[in-house]
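Hey team,

Sharing the DUF1573 domain-containing protein run so nobody has to redo it. Sequence (79 residues) first:
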Amino acid sequence: MHATKQVFEPGAGLEQAKEQAGTHVEGHLCENCREVIGSELGRELFYMSALCNLLDINMDEIVVKESQKCATLGLFNLS
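Structure output:
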């Protein structure tokens, strides 16, 4: 995998920035890296779900609200 800092041309419009945004990561994770990152993500999800359970917060609702918020940003979301 190869990742670099994103470079944007000065004065570039939002459409051009959106097209360039995802191009700074190329390739695929090796199996070891995939396993390590998956483990870390799993750990974070475990603690997030435990906190949601403890505080009686519906995690599904949180994800839906965040997704809607990001979708509302449209072009400004750059995804």
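Residues 2-74 form one domain.

Ping me if you want the raw files.
A.
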